[in-house]
Amino acid sequence: MNAATGRRLLAEFTGTGLLVAVVVGSGIAATRLSTDGALRLLVNSVVTSLGLAVLILVFIQAGGAHFNPVVTAADWILGRRYGLGQAAAVIACQITGAIAGAALADAMFAEPVLSPSRHHRGGPPILLSEVVATAGLLFVIVSLSRTGRLQHVAWAVAAWIGAAYWFTASTSFANPAVTIARSLTSTYAGIAPASVPAFIAAQLAGGAIGTILAVTIYPVQCGRIQVEQPAQLAG
Amino acid sequence: MNAATGRRLLAEFTGTGLLVAVVVGSGIAATRLSTDGALRLLVNSVVTSLGLAVLILVFIQAGGAHFNPVVTAADWILGRRYGLGQAAAVIACQITGAIAGAALADAMFAEPVLSPSRHHRGGPPILLSEVVATAGLLFVIVSLSRTGRLQHVAWAVAAWIGAAYWFTASTSFANPAVTIARSLTSTYAGIAPASVPAFIAAQLAGGAIGTILAVTIYPVQCGRIQVEQPAQLAG
Amino acid sequence: MNAATGRRLLAEFTGTGLLVAVVVGSGIAATRLSTDGALRLLVNSVVTSLGLAVLILVFIQAGGAHFNPVVTAADWILGRRYGLGQAAAVIACQITGAIAGAALADAMFAEPVLSPSRHHRGGPPILLSEVVATAGLLFVIVSLSRTGRLQHVAWAVAAWIGAAYWFTASTSFANPAVTIARSLTSTYAGIAPASVPAFIAAQLAGGAIGTILAVTIYPVQCGRIQVEQPAQLAG
Amino acid sequence: MNAATGRRLLAEFTGTGLLVAVVVGSGIAATRLSTDGALRLLVNSVVTSLGLAVLILVFIQAGGAHFNPVVTAADWILGRRYGLGQAAAVIACQITGAIAGAALADAMFAEPVLSPSRHHRGGPPILLSEVVATAGLLFVIVSLSRTGRLQHVAWAVAAWIGAAYWFTASTSFANPAVTIARSLTSTYAGIAPASVPAFIAAQLAGGAIGTILAVTIYPVQCGRIQVEQPAQLAG
Question: Of A62, C180, C205, D76, which has the fewest beta carbons less than 10 angstroms from its beta carbon?
């Protein structure tokens, strides 16, 4: 493993961890401060959206800021710019980082750490929601990548997830690593471990649909893209 | 029909469908979670705004991301870059996509699918509101196009619609395809089928006013514009 | 008066009118839908912020999108790119447009049109608030102009006003034309006519402070700036 | 002290002062208008986020828009582009500006000026929260700087702080100058003077962690960066 790969793995671990800390922590704070269900979810969705945007912005130059095994899988299949071993290591770091992030949020709020959730989620409408949410997420990422416009990806992904919290019935997990981590917090954002496998299956199906749709609508890849053009250097 | 036209039609179908799913779905979720009317509409407007922004960003390079028959009509009249047949096909895809999106939202929330709304909306103040909302929408789009600044269109349209939800009395439908589709959901965002024709007439009048105003204020077209400059390619 | 000046006046009339319609209309809607004072002001501030951003974006290329006599005065004093007669005409259009916008909002919500407000606002803390709000507004605009970064002005002004609604005690009118117009609506956003002169005096003082501060911190003007670079033309 | 340094100090004094005025003033307004704890904090966080974004945008070209001793310390250690004396003067201006800003907010709302807070904050979860919030803040700033993408810093910092208000348990002070100033207001945003030292210690520890992480993930500095490219000059 060279140094760049090590930095990528550290970025994926840290970024996914902070993303889960944002999701779980804001859920705890909102639950403590209000009894209104819409206000709680509004806080949770807006904060997740802001957190996603900034985390993508700051980690994207260290290997893509995937934070999501479905994204890494699609990137690997479409691009093959790195080996299967690196893709697997990235996903392992996403999952362990996500679990660490859930623990960090619970520690910041003095909640039990790594406590399994008892919040069962499932049924066809909920799983359909996960398919739609993940399909849209992958469509956003792959479309912007293929049209050479990754400079928009941070705010576009943030907007999609912020909206999907509300217009789907599952509040849009759309991420297997985050789903696994959320099974280990017995707070607002939790999901019972028994509900996780069906969620992940729905997310994988959605990811495939979104990726295929993006490749269909944008059949021509604009070549290998530099993520963003640095600001002009002074002198 | 060549392949590019097919991709455009698929993009208009999918994008308009997801836009309606965002509008209808977030209305259902907000209604279930809160009894406060302002909080419900705040959620509905913010989520629609985020959804519009991201959908325009990701579909714009596949034929313009109109999602709206009034926009397609103005674009065709001002530009004539494609035949009347293609314009009609685009509008047909917007309408069928919108209906599919309403059905998708209702399915995700286990609501009756394709059930007509009984929510009557109308009267001069409401119809004046639709004129203002659609005039502003067309002014935004045509002005940015004519001044060669379509890189702003996604967030500008999102901001306009997000504001128009509140500062008009109709909550700003501003889109005949979306209006038709919203007549087929008996949830928060619904509109009774009998109210639809007057809404569409007001939207067409508003669209004409906004387009004429934009052409008046910006009489010189900056030439044919590439939607957005792709990020610099790496070596 | 040449055609470009005519278009500028039309733009200032329409833009200021829509700005006031956004402020007044969203206040009416929020008042009708909720009794919570914070939720009402949150809606009013967020919607005004979105409206300001999009209106500046779409009108800026037709003469600056000032919508505000204090901004026009500062622009004229600092730049002298047009005669005093044009500046006066611009301000007259801002005021008449603002009044028309208040009437439009009241018409959309079936409220009495051009009805004087009975909402008295004033006292040293409130007037100090108007000084601070207007000083900040002018500092934002003049600073971005002098550093050649007017591409940020729409969202920066929107963010400033959105914040100033809350961190000042006056909810930040910061605009004499808008203040006059808001004296002619007996709804949430109204201000009693007798309260207007002190507000305008505070706004002028604040505008002077903000402009002087900007010129002090950025003493070197980056030359005459083109507002924004059009997107690349396609072939 | 040359003129540019004087302007930088004035910018840091004014910018930090307005930042604190935004934080304290919006807290007072939210507390007066609602009893719902989540709505109060939502207002406080959204308004702080908007205020931070615009203040960074308008002051950044006058010496960096740090507004935060931890940021100035990291910048000085990593860059050494100015002497220790200037760094100390900058921090002194941040602290005095912050205190003036708290007094300004209290004056605008007719609250007692420079009155010490009695709101005790502390304990391991709260202090851990300050470590996380400040580490993230420094990671955001240093990463964007090292990758030559400071054009994103205003909205990225705003998003981080807006999110950190909620996903940490301390509401994310993350700034020693702001913390000191908030000890001198007996309103919503206050912190008891006795709680300040531990907060500052946690912020310094977090700042060090975030800076080291950014240097680890982005070991190569993209050279000295011009903050932003001015818009194209006309003729």
Answer: C205
